[in-house]
Amino acid sequence: MDKGFFGWLNVLACLLIVLKTDGCYVNITYVQSAVATGAVCLDGSPPAYHWDKGFGAGIDNWLVHIEGGGWCNNVTTCLERKNTRLGSSKLMAKQIAFSGIFSNEPKFNPDFYNWNRIKVRYCDGASFTGDVEAVDPATNLHFRGARIWHAVIDELLAKGMRSAKKAILSGCSAGGLTSILHCDDFHSLFPATTKVKCLADAGYFINAKDLTGTPHIQEIYSDVVKTHGSAKNLPESCTSTFAPNLCFFPQYAARTIHTPLFLLNAAYDSWQVNNILAPGVADPHGLWDSCKLDIKNCDSDQIKTLQGYRLEFLSALEVLGSSTTRGMFINSCYVHCQSEMQETWFRDDSPVLNNTTIAKAIGDWYYDRSPFQEIDCPYPCDSSCHNGLFDPQEHPEL
Protein backbone atom coordinates (compact mmCIF):
# COMPACT_ATOMS: atom_id res chain seq x y z
CA MET A 1 0.00 0.00 0.00
CA ASP A 2 1.26 3.50 -0.77
CA LYS A 3 1.96 6.30 1.68
CA GLY A 4 -1.07 8.21 0.51
CA PHE A 5 -3.37 5.41 1.61
CA PHE A 6 -1.96 5.43 5.12
CA GLY A 7 -2.26 9.20 5.20
CA TRP A 8 -5.96 8.97 4.47
CA LEU A 9 -6.32 6.27 7.14
CA ASN A 10 -4.83 8.70 9.64
CA VAL A 11 -7.30 11.40 8.62
CA LEU A 12 -10.18 8.94 8.99
CA ALA A 13 -8.99 7.97 12.46
CA CYS A 14 -8.94 11.61 13.50
CA LEU A 15 -12.44 12.18 12.17
CA LEU A 16 -13.71 9.28 14.26
CA ILE A 17 -12.52 10.91 17.48
CA VAL A 18 -15.02 13.13 19.27
CA LEU A 19 -13.20 16.32 20.11
CA LYS A 20 -13.75 19.62 21.84
CA THR A 21 -11.51 21.29 19.26
CA ASP A 22 -11.53 21.53 15.50
CA GLY A 23 -8.73 19.05 15.05
CA CYS A 24 -7.42 15.64 15.99
CA TYR A 25 -5.22 14.26 18.75
CA VAL A 26 -1.68 13.35 17.78
CA ASN A 27 0.62 11.03 19.75
CA ILE A 28 3.99 12.03 21.12
CA THR A 29 7.24 10.66 19.68
CA TYR A 30 10.36 10.57 21.85
CA VAL A 31 13.79 10.94 20.24
CA GLN A 32 15.39 8.22 22.35
CA SER A 33 18.56 8.16 20.24
CA ALA A 34 19.26 11.76 21.26
CA VAL A 35 20.12 10.77 24.83
CA ALA A 36 23.40 9.18 23.73
CA THR A 37 24.58 12.48 22.26
CA GLY A 38 23.45 14.52 25.26
CA ALA A 39 20.66 16.18 23.29
CA VAL A 40 18.28 16.21 26.24
CA CYS A 41 15.76 18.34 28.09
CA LEU A 42 16.71 20.27 31.23
CA ASP A 43 16.18 17.16 33.37
CA GLY A 44 18.05 14.80 31.04
CA SER A 45 14.97 13.26 29.45
CA PRO A 46 14.78 12.77 25.65
CA PRO A 47 13.33 15.49 23.38
CA ALA A 48 9.95 14.90 21.77
CA TYR A 49 7.59 15.95 19.01
CA HIS A 50 4.14 15.21 17.61
CA TRP A 51 3.77 14.34 13.92
CA ASP A 52 0.59 14.17 11.87
CA LYS A 53 1.73 12.73 8.54
CA GLY A 54 1.05 14.36 5.22
CA PHE A 55 -1.23 12.86 2.61
CA GLY A 56 -2.34 13.35 -0.97
CA ALA A 57 -0.72 16.30 -2.74
CA GLY A 58 0.91 17.41 0.53
CA ILE A 59 2.80 14.21 1.26
CA ASP A 60 6.18 15.77 0.41
CA ASN A 61 5.55 19.09 2.21
CA TRP A 62 6.70 19.71 5.79
CA LEU A 63 5.65 22.18 8.47
CA VAL A 64 7.94 22.10 11.51
CA HIS A 65 6.45 24.19 14.31
CA ILE A 66 8.25 24.91 17.58
CA GLU A 67 6.29 25.07 20.84
CA GLY A 68 6.58 28.21 22.97
CA GLY A 69 6.93 28.76 26.69
CA GLY A 70 9.32 31.54 27.73
CA TRP A 71 12.85 30.98 29.02
CA CYS A 72 14.79 30.22 32.19
CA ASN A 73 17.67 32.58 32.85
CA ASN A 74 19.51 31.13 35.84
CA VAL A 75 19.86 27.94 37.90
CA THR A 76 16.92 28.84 40.13
CA THR A 77 14.41 29.44 37.35
CA CYS A 78 15.72 26.46 35.36
CA LEU A 79 15.30 24.18 38.39
CA GLU A 80 11.68 25.35 38.66
CA ARG A 81 11.20 24.70 34.96
CA LYS A 82 12.85 21.27 35.16
CA ASN A 83 9.83 19.94 37.04
CA THR A 84 7.30 20.98 34.39
CA ARG A 85 6.49 19.94 30.81
CA LEU A 86 8.74 22.81 29.69
CA GLY A 87 11.78 21.10 31.19
CA SER A 88 10.99 17.41 31.04
CA SER A 89 9.46 15.18 28.38
CA LYS A 90 8.36 12.89 31.21
CA LEU A 91 5.72 15.48 32.10
CA MET A 92 4.45 16.19 28.59
CA ALA A 93 0.98 15.11 27.49
CA LYS A 94 1.13 11.88 25.49
CA GLN A 95 -1.39 13.33 23.01
CA ILE A 96 -2.17 16.90 22.02
CA ALA A 97 -4.90 18.37 19.83
CA PHE A 98 -3.87 19.66 16.42
CA SER A 99 -5.90 22.64 15.21
CA GLY A 100 -5.33 25.97 13.49
CA ILE A 101 -2.19 25.72 11.36
CA PHE A 102 -2.01 22.03 12.38
CA SER A 103 -5.54 21.11 11.28
CA ASN A 104 -5.90 18.29 8.75
CA GLU A 105 -9.15 19.65 7.33
CA PRO A 106 -9.15 22.02 4.34
CA LYS A 107 -12.08 24.01 5.72
CA PHE A 108 -9.99 24.91 8.78
CA ASN A 109 -6.51 25.06 7.22
CA PRO A 110 -6.84 25.45 3.44
CA ASP A 111 -3.17 25.70 2.44
CA PHE A 112 -1.39 23.31 4.82
CA TYR A 113 -3.99 20.72 5.90
CA ASN A 114 -2.39 17.82 4.02
CA TRP A 115 1.25 18.62 4.82
CA ASN A 116 3.38 16.71 7.30
CA ARG A 117 2.66 18.82 10.39
CA ILE A 118 5.08 18.54 13.32
CA LYS A 119 4.95 20.23 16.69
CA VAL A 120 8.35 20.11 18.38
CA ARG A 121 8.03 20.20 22.17
CA TYR A 122 10.01 22.84 24.02
CA CYS A 123 12.04 21.66 27.02
CA ASP A 124 15.38 23.49 27.07
CA GLY A 125 14.44 27.01 28.17
CA ALA A 126 16.59 28.93 25.67
CA SER A 127 14.84 28.70 22.28
CA PHE A 128 17.05 25.76 21.26
CA THR A 129 20.31 27.73 21.44
CA GLY A 130 22.13 26.39 24.51
CA ASP A 131 24.98 23.91 24.67
CA VAL A 132 26.91 23.51 27.91
CA GLU A 133 28.87 20.25 28.22
CA ALA A 134 29.25 20.24 31.99
CA VAL A 135 26.35 19.04 34.15
CA ASP A 136 26.40 20.05 37.81
CA PRO A 137 25.53 16.90 39.81
CA ALA A 138 23.91 19.09 42.45
CA THR A 139 21.25 20.29 40.02
CA ASN A 140 21.42 17.76 37.15
CA LEU A 141 20.49 20.60 34.79
CA HIS A 142 21.28 20.04 31.13
CA PHE A 143 21.62 23.14 28.95
CA ARG A 144 21.49 21.42 25.56
CA GLY A 145 18.90 23.19 23.42
CA ALA A 146 21.06 23.44 20.30
CA ARG A 147 21.74 19.71 20.47
CA ILE A 148 18.00 19.05 20.75
CA TRP A 149 17.42 21.15 17.64
CA HIS A 150 19.90 19.08 15.62
CA ALA A 151 18.68 15.75 17.01
CA VAL A 152 15.03 16.40 16.19
CA ILE A 153 15.75 17.86 12.76
CA ASP A 154 18.09 14.97 11.91
CA GLU A 155 15.39 12.46 12.83
CA LEU A 156 12.80 14.26 10.68
CA LEU A 157 15.23 14.43 7.76
CA ALA A 158 15.78 10.69 8.06
CA LYS A 159 12.02 10.10 8.15
CA GLY A 160 11.46 11.80 4.81
CA MET A 161 11.88 15.52 5.27
CA ARG A 162 15.15 15.39 3.33
CA SER A 163 13.06 14.95 0.17
CA ALA A 164 10.68 17.81 0.94
CA LYS A 165 9.39 19.84 -1.98
CA LYS A 166 8.05 22.55 0.33
CA ALA A 167 8.98 23.36 3.92
CA ILE A 168 8.15 25.87 6.63
CA LEU A 169 9.84 26.43 9.98
CA SER A 170 7.38 28.11 12.32
CA GLY A 171 6.84 28.60 16.02
CA CYS A 172 4.87 30.41 18.68
CA SER A 173 6.33 32.75 21.33
CA ALA A 174 9.77 31.41 22.36
CA GLY A 175 9.23 28.97 19.49
CA GLY A 176 8.64 31.93 17.20
CA LEU A 177 12.00 33.29 18.29
CA THR A 178 13.46 29.84 17.55
CA SER A 179 12.07 30.00 14.01
CA ILE A 180 13.88 33.31 13.50
CA LEU A 181 17.20 32.28 15.05
CA HIS A 182 17.31 28.95 13.16
CA CYS A 183 15.65 30.13 9.94
CA ASP A 184 18.68 30.20 7.65
CA ASP A 185 20.08 27.05 9.24
CA PHE A 186 16.81 25.25 8.49
CA HIS A 187 16.90 26.50 4.90
CA SER A 188 20.44 25.17 4.44
CA LEU A 189 19.28 21.61 5.08
CA PHE A 190 17.41 21.38 1.79
CA PRO A 191 18.39 21.37 -1.88
CA ALA A 192 17.95 24.58 -3.85
CA THR A 193 14.80 23.19 -5.44
CA THR A 194 12.93 23.06 -2.11
CA LYS A 195 10.69 26.04 -1.37
CA VAL A 196 11.63 27.03 2.19
CA LYS A 197 10.21 29.86 4.27
CA CYS A 198 9.89 30.73 7.98
CA LEU A 199 7.02 31.98 10.13
CA ALA A 200 7.37 33.61 13.55
CA ASP A 201 4.12 33.82 15.51
CA ALA A 202 4.37 36.19 18.51
CA GLY A 203 8.15 35.78 18.40
CA TYR A 204 9.16 39.37 17.71
CA PHE A 205 10.19 40.37 21.23
CA ILE A 206 11.55 43.90 21.32
CA ASN A 207 14.39 45.43 23.31
CA ALA A 208 12.32 47.97 25.23
CA LYS A 209 12.61 49.37 28.74
CA ASP A 210 9.98 48.73 31.38
CA LEU A 211 7.74 51.25 33.15
CA THR A 212 10.62 52.39 35.36
CA GLY A 213 13.06 52.84 32.48
CA THR A 214 14.98 49.66 33.34
CA PRO A 215 16.16 47.38 30.49
CA HIS A 216 14.55 44.40 32.24
CA ILE A 217 14.15 42.11 29.22
CA GLN A 218 17.70 42.84 28.01
CA GLU A 219 19.01 41.78 31.42
CA ILE A 220 16.92 38.60 31.27
CA TYR A 221 18.16 37.76 27.77
CA SER A 222 21.76 38.39 28.82
CA ASP A 223 21.32 35.88 31.65
CA VAL A 224 19.69 33.33 29.32
CA VAL A 225 22.58 33.55 26.85
CA LYS A 226 25.17 33.29 29.64
CA THR A 227 23.47 30.45 31.55
CA HIS A 228 22.85 28.30 28.48
CA GLY A 229 26.06 29.07 26.62
CA SER A 230 24.00 30.29 23.69
CA ALA A 231 26.43 32.74 22.10
CA LYS A 232 28.09 30.19 19.80
CA ASN A 233 24.73 29.03 18.47
CA LEU A 234 23.21 32.41 17.62
CA PRO A 235 23.34 33.55 13.98
CA GLU A 236 26.94 34.46 13.16
CA SER A 237 25.64 37.11 10.79
CA CYS A 238 24.37 38.89 13.91
CA THR A 239 27.07 38.13 16.49
CA SER A 240 29.73 39.41 14.11
CA THR A 241 28.17 42.86 14.52
CA PHE A 242 26.24 42.87 17.81
CA ALA A 243 26.78 41.50 21.31
CA PRO A 244 25.34 37.96 21.72
CA ASN A 245 22.70 39.08 24.22
CA LEU A 246 21.36 41.53 21.62
CA CYS A 247 21.26 38.78 19.01
CA PHE A 248 18.59 37.05 21.09
CA PHE A 249 16.33 39.92 19.99
CA PRO A 250 14.74 39.59 16.52
CA GLN A 251 15.27 43.26 15.72
CA TYR A 252 19.01 42.54 15.54
CA ALA A 253 19.05 38.86 14.50
CA ALA A 254 16.48 39.12 11.70
CA ARG A 255 18.25 41.91 9.80
CA THR A 256 20.54 39.53 7.94
CA ILE A 257 18.23 36.54 7.46
CA HIS A 258 18.20 35.53 3.82
CA THR A 259 15.27 33.10 3.95
CA PRO A 260 11.81 34.61 3.39
CA LEU A 261 10.26 35.33 6.80
CA PHE A 262 6.69 36.11 7.86
CA LEU A 263 6.11 38.01 11.10
CA LEU A 264 2.73 37.42 12.72
CA ASN A 265 2.40 39.52 15.86
CA ALA A 266 0.05 41.65 17.89
CA ALA A 267 1.35 45.19 18.40
CA TYR A 268 -0.07 44.91 21.94
CA ASP A 269 1.31 41.43 22.52
CA SER A 270 -0.03 40.33 25.91
CA TRP A 271 3.15 38.50 26.94
CA GLN A 272 5.30 41.51 26.09
CA VAL A 273 3.01 43.84 28.05
CA ASN A 274 3.20 41.49 31.04
CA ASN A 275 6.94 40.84 30.91
CA ILE A 276 8.72 43.58 28.96
CA LEU A 277 6.65 46.72 29.55
CA ALA A 278 5.11 46.05 32.97
CA PRO A 279 6.85 43.15 34.72
CA GLY A 280 6.11 42.67 38.41
CA VAL A 281 9.45 44.20 39.47
CA ALA A 282 8.45 47.44 37.73
CA ASP A 283 4.99 47.49 39.30
CA PRO A 284 5.44 46.45 42.97
CA HIS A 285 2.00 47.74 44.00
CA GLY A 286 0.21 45.85 41.25
CA LEU A 287 -1.33 48.92 39.65
CA TRP A 288 -1.13 47.21 36.27
CA ASP A 289 -2.44 43.81 37.37
CA SER A 290 -6.00 44.30 36.17
CA CYS A 291 -4.90 45.97 32.92
CA LYS A 292 -2.40 43.20 32.16
CA LEU A 293 -5.06 40.56 32.66
CA ASP A 294 -7.55 42.18 30.28
CA ILE A 295 -6.88 45.24 28.12
CA LYS A 296 -10.50 46.34 28.63
CA ASN A 297 -9.59 47.06 32.25
CA CYS A 298 -6.85 49.56 31.37
CA ASP A 299 -7.40 53.19 32.34
CA SER A 300 -6.68 56.12 30.02
CA ASP A 301 -3.11 56.60 31.24
CA GLN A 302 -2.36 52.91 30.78
CA ILE A 303 -3.82 52.97 27.28
CA LYS A 304 -1.57 55.93 26.50
CA THR A 305 1.44 53.92 27.71
CA LEU A 306 0.34 50.95 25.59
CA GLN A 307 0.06 53.19 22.54
CA GLY A 308 3.63 54.29 23.16
CA TYR A 309 4.73 50.66 23.35
CA ARG A 310 3.03 49.97 20.01
CA LEU A 311 5.09 52.76 18.44
CA GLU A 312 8.26 51.24 19.91
CA PHE A 313 7.26 47.88 18.48
CA LEU A 314 6.70 49.36 15.03
CA SER A 315 10.07 51.16 15.20
CA ALA A 316 11.74 47.84 16.04
CA LEU A 317 10.14 46.40 12.90
CA GLU A 318 11.33 49.26 10.73
CA VAL A 319 14.99 48.53 11.47
CA LEU A 320 14.67 45.34 9.42
CA GLY A 321 14.34 47.45 6.32
CA SER A 322 12.09 46.70 3.40
CA SER A 323 12.02 43.32 1.71
CA THR A 324 9.65 42.02 -0.92
CA THR A 325 10.05 38.49 0.46
CA ARG A 326 9.03 39.41 4.03
CA GLY A 327 5.45 39.05 5.13
CA MET A 328 3.79 40.89 8.03
CA PHE A 329 0.46 40.62 9.79
CA ILE A 330 0.69 43.06 12.70
CA ASN A 331 -2.74 43.50 14.25
CA SER A 332 -3.82 45.61 17.22
CA CYS A 333 -5.19 42.81 19.35
CA TYR A 334 -4.30 41.96 22.95
CA VAL A 335 -3.22 38.38 22.38
CA HIS A 336 -0.16 36.14 22.25
CA CYS A 337 0.14 33.51 19.49
CA GLN A 338 -2.54 33.34 16.80
CA SER A 339 -1.59 30.47 14.48
CA GLU A 340 -2.27 27.52 16.78
CA MET A 341 -5.87 28.33 17.69
CA GLN A 342 -8.64 27.76 15.17
CA GLU A 343 -10.57 30.87 16.19
CA THR A 344 -7.66 33.16 15.33
CA TRP A 345 -6.16 31.15 12.44
CA PHE A 346 -9.12 30.58 10.13
CA ARG A 347 -12.78 30.85 10.96
CA ASP A 348 -15.71 33.02 9.94
CA ASP A 349 -15.04 35.38 12.85
CA SER A 350 -11.23 35.26 12.78
CA PRO A 351 -9.11 38.44 12.96
CA VAL A 352 -8.58 40.14 9.61
CA LEU A 353 -6.39 42.82 8.11
CA ASN A 354 -7.42 44.26 4.75
CA ASN A 355 -10.32 41.75 4.84
CA THR A 356 -7.80 38.89 4.95
CA THR A 357 -7.51 36.20 7.63
CA ILE A 358 -4.17 35.16 9.08
CA ALA A 359 -4.36 31.77 7.32
CA LYS A 360 -5.03 33.34 3.93
CA ALA A 361 -2.36 36.01 4.37
CA ILE A 362 0.30 33.42 5.22
CA GLY A 363 -0.89 31.02 2.50
CA ASP A 364 -0.85 33.75 -0.15
CA TRP A 365 2.65 34.80 0.97
CA TYR A 366 4.05 31.28 1.10
CA TYR A 367 2.71 30.25 -2.30
CA ASP A 368 3.64 33.61 -3.86
CA ARG A 369 0.04 34.28 -4.81
CA SER A 370 0.36 37.80 -3.44
CA PRO A 371 2.58 39.63 -0.91
CA PHE A 372 1.16 40.60 2.47
CA GLN A 373 2.57 43.40 4.63
CA GLU A 374 -0.18 44.94 6.74
CA ILE A 375 -0.01 46.91 10.01
CA ASP A 376 -3.23 47.59 11.90
CA CYS A 377 -4.50 50.95 13.14
CA PRO A 378 -4.16 51.61 16.92
CA TYR A 379 -6.30 49.90 19.57
CA PRO A 380 -9.30 49.76 19.85
CA CYS A 381 -10.04 50.26 16.15
CA ASP A 382 -10.02 46.57 15.15
CA SER A 383 -13.39 44.92 15.83
CA SER A 384 -12.19 41.56 14.46
CA CYS A 385 -9.73 41.00 17.33
CA HIS A 386 -9.98 38.05 19.68
CA ASN A 387 -8.58 39.86 22.69
CA GLY A 388 -7.61 37.25 25.26
CA LEU A 389 -7.13 37.03 28.99
CA PHE A 390 -3.43 36.60 29.62
CA ASP A 391 -2.66 33.06 30.82
CA PRO A 392 0.72 32.74 32.59
CA GLN A 393 0.24 28.97 32.81
CA GLU A 394 0.37 28.65 29.03
CA HIS A 395 3.09 31.28 28.48
CA PRO A 396 5.01 31.63 31.75
CA GLU A 397 5.88 35.04 33.10
CA LEU A 398 9.50 35.94 33.84
From TrEMBL:
Q: Which UniProt keywords apply?
A: Cell wall, Cell wall biogenesis/degradation, Hydrolase, Secreted, Signal
**Stored InterPro entries:** PAE/NOTUM
Gene Ontology MF terms = pectin acetylesterase activity
| Record keyword Ribonucleoprotein present | no
Which cellular component appears as one GO term in the record? plant-type cell wall
Enzyme Commission number, as recorded? 3.1.1.-
**Which subcellular locations apply to this protein?**
Secreted, Cell wall
Signal peptide boundaries: 1-23
Q: What is its main location?
A: secreted
Q: Which GO terms describe its biological process?
A: cell wall organization
Q: What does this protein do?
A: Hydrolyzes acetyl esters in homogalacturonan regions of pectin. In type I primary cell wall, galacturonic acid residues of pectin can be acetylated at the O-2 and O-3 positions. Decreasing the degree of acetylation of pectin gels in vitro alters their physical properties.
Q: Can you tell me which family this protein belongs to?
A: Belongs to the pectinacetylesterase family.
Output the PANTHER family linked to this UniProt entry.
NOTUM-RELATED (PTHR21562), PECTIN ACETYLESTERASE 8 (PTHR21562:SF93)
Q: What is this protein called?
A: Pectin acetylesterase
Supply the source organism for this entry. Stephania yunnanensis
Recite the lineage of the species: Eukaryota, Viridiplantae, Streptophyta, Embryophyta, Tracheophyta
